[in-house]
Design brief:
The structure holds two protein chains of two kinds. Chain A is α/β, with parallel strands linked by helices. Chain A has three domains: about 1-300, 2-enoyl-CoA Hydratase, Chain A, domain 1, CATH 3.90.226.10; about 325-510, Rossmann fold (3-Layer(aba) Sandwich); about 520-650, N-(1-d-carboxylethyl)-l-norvaline Dehydrogenase, domain 2 (Orthogonal Bundle), CATH 1.10.1040. Chain A has 29 helices and 19 strands. Chain A has an eight-stranded mixed beta sheet. A six-stranded mixed beta sheet of chain A has the order 1-2-3-5-7-9, with helices on both faces. In chain A, strand 2 (about 35-40), helix 1 (about 55-70) and strand 3 (about 75-80) form a beta-alpha-beta unit. In chain A, helix 14 (about 340-355) packs across helix 15 and helix 15 (about 365-385) packs antiparallel against helix 16. Chain A is globular and about 85 Å long. The two termini of chain A are about 25 Å apart. In chain B, the strands form two sheets. In chain B, strands 1, 2, 3, 4, 5, 8, 9, 10, 11 and 12 form a ten-stranded mixed beta sheet that branches. The longest helix of chain B is centred in the middle third of the chain and has 20 residues, at about 165-185. In chain B, strand 3 (about 50-55), helix 2 (about 70-75) and strand 4 form a beta-alpha-beta unit. Chain B has helices spanning about 25-40, 70-75, 95-105, 135-140, 150-160, 165-185, 220-225, 255-260, 285-295, 315-325, 340, 350-365, and strands at about 5-10, 15, 50-55, 85, 110-120, 195-200, 205, 245-255, 265-275, 305-310, 370-375, 380-385. In chain B, helix 1 (about 25-40) packs across helix 2 (about 70-75). The chains are: A alpha/beta, B alpha+beta. Chains A and B meet through strand 1, strand 2 and helix 9 of A and helix 1, strand 6 and strand 7 of B.
């Protein structure tokens, strides 16, 4: 015990969540005796939720002992305003150096929490606000739970590469049955960490009652008094012989495979094993299994990479590396979008939804303009249908989006973004023309994915206001925005672009103006190697499945189907021209585009995907076939090479920027740390570039 | 046109000492709690049918600002179709909320409404943010003493030399004893809405009883207290109400609506009156207000069987009793004790008097009429005369 109270070396000081003890006389609630109410409070406001580190657990342990010494009729636990508890203090987890430490933390959590389920009096969790992970697990140990109607709850462990290891994986299936437990522990966590609303938690049986926040505590105590006096009864079901265990577990397994493109990752697999075990496990055997699982995961590079990714995403969301002072930003109260195609329309939609200012679209002819504007208007109407926007909100925004074939409508715009065809000369002509219309301060942004932004400024009077503003498809969903500065882009323009990006709620990475910026450059390099391997003679399915085991959300060819061979080929050609022959132009891809074959996989009548014979027929038939392992190594090698070049060229300043881009722009999984931690731990970085990207101990075990 | 107005129910939060029980609780949250408690106790009322929410506070800024009536209605989860307003007559705020709502019901505009009041004197110390016009003193519109309530109480002692400190202390002692007895008999707790109160140091707690009462008070102890308002004065912390936090709420209805909905009736309003006196002796206000109200109701003081008088200061109660020749220790005056014991969160107190009177009516079917009365800063008094719905003639 003593040694877990000492912080591992390098870990930040624990912000201690104290457990405060007070008695409540139940007389006023119609029951004799007193209830001891424990309040979890770390002394900070709601922006810094309660968490459980070693000292916080010790405080709760002492509080339970104190509570029992007062001979209460019940013990209840609640949180500080708006927050119950957000779970284990993860900040120290990444610094543990031995399995014994990891085991001890798991065990200490169990030892403290399980008292709430095993002491002689009934216990209640009054979950007044956010309860995540260990925060919800505290509640699961209690005999009964109430929940504020506005509180979100969830078990995000599997999302983070962990398992609910302080009782959740064992107690929840016993409480609510296999199907619902799989929903909460697996499906919600894997679905981008979806939290439960109070009504969902009630339906699922996670909580016994829901009360409005205005008098949540008073009503919760009244609920407790009603239970204690027998006026209210909560029935529990024994799920041991529930017929749905197998089905639930296979649902969970399928969801995990789908999420990680067919890869079987540790955390979901181990979580499912614990859920399966919960059917017959005793509390003790279940908790022991949880501890062993936690220790295994904690002493594993994948978890370290996940925690690194999680922290990176949190940090980058708030702070844009290399951004000029935000006070430099100009106000944007009118936006122009050049083009009215699908990408341009998506840009118009995201702009109007977040900036709530006039957005005007232009295109070559009225029909295209009308189509683009109509698309935005329809999307707004759909949001109303889905109840994600009020009708009046949609009216307001609908009126703000207009179109014209005359670019003169951009005259008083503050920010014009182009999304026209990816052809440098067209964009140069466009910007030269726009400069005659807009003010000298108006930002001219380009959503180019692979062209040189600097080249677009040629001949401009004010090249300093041109900037790359690169979104990812689908624009509304993908969180990343690459902001590319040319050698002349000034700070005011960059600050304005960052300010717009902030309003769009994007995570931004500022890059040098280099072809493909970060995501496309790395991604196309990687994709190119797979396609090359196929063109050289590797069977398409071998090439495409070579990366399955590492957990990308889709295989390269699945993604190709989504992007479209036309776009992919065009980007590849641009990068080939600008970065060199390592970006090859695949004859297979050229034939696919020429023949109008859109995908390697097509959906059969039974709803299952199968290899598209039309595509297979066009594949270049080389004679030099590679094994799956060779393809994998080759692709990863290319990634390491390219990433090193990018850092050396100063495309971005740190490896963390590259990881951020791959996490948020390519959707690469947190267990890879984006990508560079994975290349480091596989030894590829050192083998290919002579050194690691991150120091040992960052995003991996020390 | 005029219709009968009844009190259906009244509740309050437990009262706290300023800076203590509710130091970590907002005033509007206290008021919300009282309103929600009131509605929870009366589930046959559809909140959407409430015509208005009138909430009093003496200091209407910060957590007592933002048009408290509307704000509390929204925060309490009453449908946003129900309007609300804030109202102020200093200590008689809640009483004025009741009489104003009653007027609206009587004239037929409303059928069902909430009236209440709150004062968080910890968050809003008495006199906070006041900016008295210099003309008050320059033109002798009032004397300096008029602006400090303790000083006005001393002035009452000056005005009526028979009202001695000893009588005031004894009255205060009795108030504490009556409150202790009422608590022991469970007569106060039944109308208190348990209220969550958080302290950053202690965590969440639930207030279920008033914090201010001092059942261990002794006459000797009272005699030895300092007189903070003047040297050798007579007004002490012991024979005055304290600085308190709390909220009250009452449900009012037209008699027809109450009968339609089969609602209980605690009291029927006969009439009310407000009256002014010299601001220096504001504690005398209940006397002219009561004379005026009795006259409107064509009743005599002897028709009044129960009195709930706010105990801002013992001397102010004594001045009232002496004027009407009622004994200092009359059993029908504040039978459950008063503000000296339970506290006086300024604008909230009016409804506390009404809820006590309603409870006394239940115990005394032989009494037909009762009054609630209180003094008001800057020289006023307010009195409401109530009829006992349980009255049985001849008992």
């Amino acid at each position: 015990m003593a040694d877990i109270m000492t912080l591992p070396e390098g870990a930040p000081e624990e912000i201690i969540t104290r457990s405060l003890v007070r008695e409540v006389d139940l007389g006023a609630f119609g029951h004799k005796g007193s209830l001891v109410l424990i309040t979890l409070d770390n002394g900070e406001d709601h922006n810094r939720p309660n968490t459980f580190g070693a000292q916080s657990l010790a405080s709760l342990d002492a509080a339970i002992t104190d509570a029992l010494s007062r001979h209460p009729v019940a013990i209840a636990i609640t949180g500080k305003p708006f927050i119950f508890a957000a779970g284990a203090d993860l900040s120290a987890l990444g610094f543990l150096t031995s399995r014994e430490q990891a085991l001890a933390i798991g065990k200490f959590g169990h030892d403290v929490f399980r008292r709430l389920g095993e002491i002689s009096v009934p216990t209640f969790a009054f979950i007044n606000g956010l309860a995540l992970g260990g925060g919800l697990e505290v509640g699961l140990h209690c005999t009964y739970r109430t929940l504020a109607s506005t509180a979100f709850t969830g078990l995000p462990e599997v999302f983070l590469g962990l398992v609910p290891g302080w009782g959740g994986a064992t107690l929840l299936p016993k409480l609510i049955g296999p199907e619902r437990a799989v929903q909460v522990i697996m499906l919600n966590a894997l679905n981008n960490n979806t939290m439960m609303k109070a009504k969902d938690a009630l339906t699922l049986g996670v909580t016994d009652a829901v009360f409005e926040p205005a008098d949540f505590l008073e009503r919760s105590i009244a609920f407790a008094a009603a239970i204690l006096s027998g006026r209210k009864k909560i029935e529990r079901i024994d799920y041991t012989n529930d017929p749905n265990w197998e089905k639930a577990l296979s649902t969970g397994k399928a969801a995990a495979l789908k999420k990680y493109g067919g890869a079987q990752l540790d955390a979901p697999t181990r979580a499912l094993a614990l859920i399966a075990d919960a059917r017959t496990a005793t509390r003790t055997s279940g908790f022991d299994a949880e501890e062993a699982t936690l220790a295994d995961l904690v002493m594993n590079d994948s978890l370290r990479a996940s925690l690194y990714s999680f922290n990176l995403i949190q940090k980058k969301r708030k702070k844009v590396e290399g951004a000029p002072k935000s006070s430099l930003a100009r106000k944007v109260s009118k936006v122009g979008v050049v083009g009215a195609g699908l990408m341009a329309s998506q840009l118009a939609l995201v702009m109007v939804r977040n900036l709530k200012c006039p957005v005007v679209m232009t295109d070559l002819d009225q029909a295209r303009v009308d189509k683009g504007v109509a698309w935005v208007h329809e999307e707004l109407a759909k949001l109303v249908e889905k109840k994600r926007m009020t009708p009046e909100g949609a009216h307001r925004l609908t009126d703000l989006v207009t179109g014209s074939i005359d670019q003169a409508v951009f005259a008083n715009a503050d920010f014009v973004i182009e999304a026209i065809f990816e052809e440098l000369s067209l964009k140069q002509t466009l910007f030269t023309h726009l400069e005659k219309i807009v003010s000298p301060e108006c930002v001219l942004a380009t959503n180019t994915s692979s062209l040189s932004v600097e080249a677009m400024t040629q001949g401009l009077q004010h090249p300093e206001r041109v900037i790359g503003f690169h979104f990812f498809n689908p624009v509304a969903v993908m969180p990343l925005l690459e902001i590319a500065r040319t050698s002349t882009t000034d700070d005011v323009t960059t600050a304005t672009a960052v300010s717009v990006g902030k309003d769009l709620k994007k995570t931004m990475v500022i890059t040098k103006d280099a072809p493909g910026f970060v995501v496309n450059r790395l991604f196309m390099r990687f994709m190119g190697e797979i396609i090359d391997a196929m063109d050289e003679g590797t069977a398409p399915d071998v090439a495409d499945n070579a990366m399955r085991s590492i957990g990308f959300p889709m295989s390269p060819f699945e993604l190709l189907g989504l992007v479209g061979p036309g776009v992919a080929l065009h980007v590849a050609e641009t990068l080939h021209d600008n970065l060199g022959p390592r970006y090859r132009i695949s004859p297979t891809m050229q034939r696919l585009v020429k023949e109008g074959v859109k995908a390697f996989y097509i959906k059969g009548d039974d709803g299952k995907y199968f290899a598209n014979p039309a595509a297979l027929a066009l594949v270049e038939k080389g004679t030099n076939s590679s094994s799956s392992e060779q393809v994998r190594l080759r692709a990863l090698t290319a990634l390491a090479q390219e990433a090193r070049m990018m850092l050396e060229e100063g495309v971005v300043s740190t490896p963390a920027e590259i990881d951020t881009c791959m996490l948020l722009g390519a959707g690469w999984p947190m267990v890879l740390g984006g990508i560079l931690p994975y290349l480091d731990r596989e030894g590829i970085s050192e083998a290919v570039t002579g050194k690691r990207f991150h120091p040992k101990g960052v995003a991996c075990l020390p | 046109m005029s219709r009968s107005v009844v009190v259906v129910d009244a509740v309050r939060t437990p009262f706290g000492k300023a800076g203590s029980l509710y130091a970590g609780t907002r005033a509007d949250d206290l008021m919300v709690r009282a309103v929600r408690g009131l509605l929870e106790r009366n589930p046959q009322i559809n909140p959407a049918d409430i015509d208005d929410v009138s909430i009093a506070a003496a200091t209407q800024t910060g957590d007592q600002g933002m048009n408290l009536g509307r704000s509390v209605a929204l925060l309490a989860g009453i449908p946003n179709t129900v309007p609300g307003y804030s109202i102020d007559r200093w200590c008689a705020g809640a009483l004025t909320a009741v009489t104003t709502i009653a007027g609206s019901i009587a004239m037929g505009a409303y059928d069902l409404a909430i009236a209440g009041g709150v004062e968080h004197m910890g968050n809003h110390p008495i006199g906070e943010g006041l900016d008295p016009n210099p003309r008050y003193l320059a033109e002798r519109i009032v004397e300096q003493d008029a602006l400090a309530m303790g000083a006005t109480a001393e002035r009452l002692h000056d005005r009526f030399p028979t009202l001695t400190k000893e009588r005031a202390d004894r009255y205060a002692f009795n108030s504490q004893m009556k409150t202790a007895k009422a608590y022991a008999e469970g007569k106060i707790q039944r109308d208190l809405i348990p209220t969550a109160a958080r302290s950053a140091e202690l965590g969440w707690g639930i207030a279920t009883v008033d914090e201010p009462p001092r059942p261990a008070t002794t006459l000797e102890g009272l005699a030895g207290l300092k007189t903070p308002f003047r040297p050798a004065g007579r007004v002490t912390a012991g024979n005055s109400s304290g600085l308190n936090d709390g909220a009250t709420a009452a449900l009012l209805a037209s008699q027809e609506r109450a009968q339609q909905l089969d609602l209980p009736i605690k009291a029927r309003l006969v009439t009310f009156a407000f009256a002014g006196v010299e601001p220096e002796i504001m504690g005398y206000g209940p006397v002219p207000a009561t004379i005026k109200a009795l006259s409107k109701a064509a009743l005599k003081i002897s028709d009044i069987g129960l009195f709930e008088i706010n105990e801002a200061f013992a001397v102010q109660v004594l001045a009232f009793l002496e004027h009407f020749s009622i004994a200092d220790d009359a059993a029908n005056v504040n039978p459950f004790g008063g503000a000296i014991a339970v506290g006086h969160p300024l604008a909230s107190s009016g409804v506390r008097l009404i809820l006590n009177l309603g409870r006394s009516f239940e115990e005394h079917p032989e009494v037909r009429y009762g009054i609630t009365t209180m003094c008001i800063g800057l020289g006023m008094g307010g009195t409401a005369i109530w009829e006992n719905p349980h009255y049985k003639a001849g008992k």
